[in-house]
Amino acid sequence: MFKRYIIHCAVLAAMILLPSALTGAETVEQTMDDFVITATRTPTSLEKIGGSSVSVVTQTDIETRKQTQIRDLLKDIPGVDISTSGGPGSSSSIFIRGSEAKSVLVLIDGVMVNNPSDPNRSADIGTLTVDNIERIEVIRGSQSVLYGSNATAGVVNIITKKGKGKPVITAGIEAGSYGTTKYSGGFRGTSGAFSYSLSAAQTKSDGYSIANDRNDDIPHNGNTDEKDGWENRNLSASLGYAVSENFDLSLTINNLTSRIDLDDFGPGYTGDRFDYVNWVSIANPTGRKERHTDLAQQYVSIRAHNFFLDRSLESTVSYNLGSNLRKSYDQNDAQEYEYKGDSSELAWQGSLFLGDTQEITLGVGSFREEMKQDAFSGGTATTEIEKSATTSSYWIQDQTYLMDEALVIVAGVRSDNHEKFGSATTWRLAPSFRIKDTGTLLKMSHGTGFQAPSLYELYSAYGNENLDASKSTTSDIGVEQEMNQGRSKVGITFFTSEFTDAIEFDMTTFKYGQATGKTKTSGWEAFYKIRIGDATDLMVNHVALKTEDANGNPLLRKPEAKTVVSGTTRVLEKTQISCSLYHVGQRTAYTGSRDKNGNTIDKLEAYTLLNLSATYALLDNLDIYGRIDNLTDTFYEDAWSYATAGRSYYAGINATF
Predict the structure, then answer these.
(1) How far is CA 143 from CA 124, 397, 500, 520, 523, in A?
(2) Which CATH entry fits the domain spanning 2-656: 3.40.50.1010, 1.10.287.3510, 3.30.429.10, 2.40.170.20?
(3) How many CB atoms are closer than 10 A to CB 418?
(4) Which terminus of the chain is more solvent-facing, meaning fewer CB atoms within 10 Å of its CB: N or C?
(5) Which residues, given as ranges, of the chain have pLDDT below 50?
(6) How buried is residue 345: exposed, middle or buried, by Cβ count under 10 Å (0-12/13-18/19+)?
């Protein structure tokens, strides 16, 4: 405990002292990267979003980092942790400020990625790639007022590229470690009132054994030898038509298909294959090892956007569709299950602009989720669950700008009515105050949230139709300080959250039920960023976290501390170099984790990773790049006995025409 306290203090002291050692010159100009959509559901300047804690992964970040999967881009963000269960494409969960994965709402162009057929309606981001992504916005803290269920800890909104300007054709190819190849291409632009953006990509990796052959505390001898690969195809399209200056229509489609090879989980650890003999898991390294999952995901958004009354009234009607089809196959390549989760949402949102000092947003929506689960035996399917539920929602939000926009007050309230558990009301207040003469920002937010029970928790063989929604309260308060004429900034935010009536699986009744007691998380996150000269950007962030469940025990796989140092620099005009250093603290392991001798594994050890990438502009329209992940070849695990990549190399080329 004392060691952890010293680390936190040292990092915070460095962030406070470092600004005085580095200076800059002219003020940084405002760009589109200074605007966000997700925080208020309307395009809003970062200076006018109130007390929200917001981070943006920009297109520049994506281009310089050269990562393939979205999960690797999100690791840089304060308060965000990613836990993976294996290699490329494998299941990946996102946690915000110590939350559970089900408390984070993930969107693609506003369409819900969280899977209605998942036991707790969480989002698996393992198959999401960076292809055709414009930016990613992450909002920390309860956002149920704007987004309803699943947003009790925060929202991740992935925004794809839209057509603009002259027609552009892009093409790329990449190859690297673990037999990885990637091909991508796209076409976007505008023609009169019509805009378009089309993209296709295929990524394939031979992978490595999910059962970790570098972990000496689990059995080997053929039990960790088989490679577990991944193949992914991503097709996306965005079409828009400006009917008039005040009326436009848009359609976005994102389609992903994947095959992920898997291993088994046996007596406390993973292995290539386990057989069950008298209800006991026995390793069988000589048997067939064909376990895999096939995924088909599609997210569609249709929108009609209008301005009225001399653009003082804005209206958006949207219809969003999400589809998740998951087929699981056993070690003998026989289908075991098929899970289908669909969602649809019809919504209207209107914003009334009262001069330059106030914006009132009203919304109404109807959200329907459906789940179907089939079990297979001898090639014949038997439907085990086929259920649906509808939630009706109403919300209002007020954004008020006072004292020449120095004081921003964002407040909202929402009512949701779920056809099974009933109604829930949530509210949020997020003010901020900017002292313009000193470049100081004071901010805070306080909000409530709710988590509707999933269809699986309600209607499966282990379900409980009497479940109520779980509830949450989150608060944060922070200060940010600009320095060096806007070229550097330092900030710290203290946060706390409390979850009640959490839905948990009861091992005594083998049913889902409401947990007694409260789940709590608290901590602080600090950052320091600076632009050094005209070529170098540096970002340091540190998070200290304390979590406890209803029994006072730490939550699983949540690091006590995490530090990220990332930076980019331009060398000799044509070369861009990017570096990311991660230190992830100790985490509590899954309660069933055991080593090969049956000893309990309580903790996952801390680790430090270093990733590097470099891009060279060979021609004005042709870039070559290289990337080294885990440069120091660090051994680490996000989940006990599940492998992660060692030192790996990738190189590619991108062309624009």
Answers:
(1) 20, 12, 17, 18, 19
(2) 2.40.170.20
(3) 21
(4) N
(5) 1-3, 5-7, 9-32
(6) buried
Distance linking the first and last C-alpha atoms of the chain: 56
pTM, to two decimals: 0.93
The two tokens of residue 224 are 């960790």
Residue 113, both tokens: 């990625």
Greatest Cα pair distance in the chain: 75
Exposure pattern of 376-406 as b/e (b: 16+ CB <10 Å)? beeeeeeeebebebebebebebebbbeeeee
Segment 398-411, tens digit of pLDDT = 999 999 999 999 99
The one-character DSSP state at 182 is: E
Q: Which helix (H) or strand (E) holds 567?
A: strand 561-571
Query: Tens digits of per-residue pLDDT, 519-561?
Result: 999 999 999 999 998 899 999 999 999 999 888 899 999 999 9
Residue 343, H or E segment: strand 335-354
- Reference 432, options 361, 491, 363, 352; nearest CA is 491
Dihedral over alpha carbons 58, 63, 67, 73 (to 10 degrees): -10
In terms of DSSP bridges, do strands 154-160 and 104-108 run parallel, antiparallel, or are they unpaired?
A: parallel
Name 596's Cβ contacts closer than 8 Å, sequence gap at least 6.
Answer: 217, 218, 219, 269
